Amino acid sequence: MTTYDERASLSSLTATAERIRGAVEGVIEGKPEVVRLSLTVLLAEGHLLIEDVPGVGKTMLAKALARSIDCSVRRIQFTPDLLPSDITGVSVFDQQRRDFEFKPGAVFAQIVIGDEINRASPKTQSALLESMEERQVTVDGHTYELPSPFMVVATQNPVEMEGTYPLPEAQRDRFMARVSMGYPSPEAELRMLDVHGFVPPLDDLQPVAHAHEIVKLVEAVRTVHVAEAVRRYAVDLVTATRHHPDLRLGASPRATLHLVRAARAAAALAGREFVLPDDVQALAVAVLAHRLLPTAQAQLGRRSAEAAVLDILQRTPVPDPSAQAWRQARRL
Q: Where is the ChlI/MoxR AAA lid domain (predicted)?
């Protein structure tokens, strides 16, 4: 049975998420789906990769999401000469204390904005691996916990752009979802000229939620029920990526976990206390595609990883779509 406290938590989640969404959409014109996915990743305790060509608002989306929440924010501009210690921190010898003192790096914040992450070398990119997965940093044998909530929002230009490095597979796998901004519609671009033409809207953006609220909302998302049939459906989708003829690298078990967590957050944002197969389907491309590597034949045929995920969605049997079945499962 769903308790009153759980229903109240989901109601509070919807209201808080609506405030954040409204604040971010006041800065990012005409991209409601992108903003909603960003919120989904935040509440699912994931990390977001924003990929697109320069000038479409990738960094602005990351900054708007960070500024809408009253929490610590650090921005890292990734460059070819950036060192791993610039991200994680370094131990410095203190002459007065005659001992080493740890100086935290830029990753010690609740929201970390990694701008143009693929402009740094793979060695520097790998400095984020431990922090993104385990929410901690180990330097000189000492482990330091990161604050909660913790989210990395990274932007990157397409690999074929000059001066970029491809993200290592282990790095991509730690991002819960990838989103592409895309060009705005002509109407949205006209509104952008009116809004952005005089004063940058980020200057007027005020926090509409606190970090402790986000922590509570994350806990509320964890209470969302996922029926066994939906869990099996997510496993079937991920398993199919490992055998698809167009893919030489399928999705990992971590991808299955991320898909289910994101589906929980999406259901909560919709005001539901249970996950539907539709939630999984809607997030499959964003959560799975960036982890997959197409074969050489698929690349020659211009068949992308996104197309492979869509093909898998069409071929994989969907559980009974009746919402009543998921409600009944919730009561058991």
A: 240-300
Residue type, 237: L
For the chain, which residues make up each domain, given as ranges? 1-223, 224-332
Three-class DSSP category at 77: strand
Map residue 201 onto helix, strand or coil. Answer: helix
| Rounded-to-integer distance, Cα 128 and Cα 133, Å | 9
Separation between Cα atoms, residue 171 and residue 322, nearest integer Å: 37
The matching CATH number, chosen from 3.40.50.150, 3.40.50.300, 1.20.1250.20, 2.60.40.10, for 1-223 is 3.40.50.300
User: Can you spell out the DSSP letters for 120-149?
Assistant: S-HHHHGGGHHHHHHSEEEETTEEEEPPSS
Residue reference for tokens 């819960």:
176
**Which pLDDT tens digit goes with each residue over 98-152?**
777 888 999 999 999 999 898 888 888 888 989 999 999 988 888 999 988 999 9
End-to-end CA distance of the chain: 7
CATH class for the domain made up of 224-332: mainly alpha
Show the tokens assigned to 135: 């929410």
pTM, full prediction: 0.89
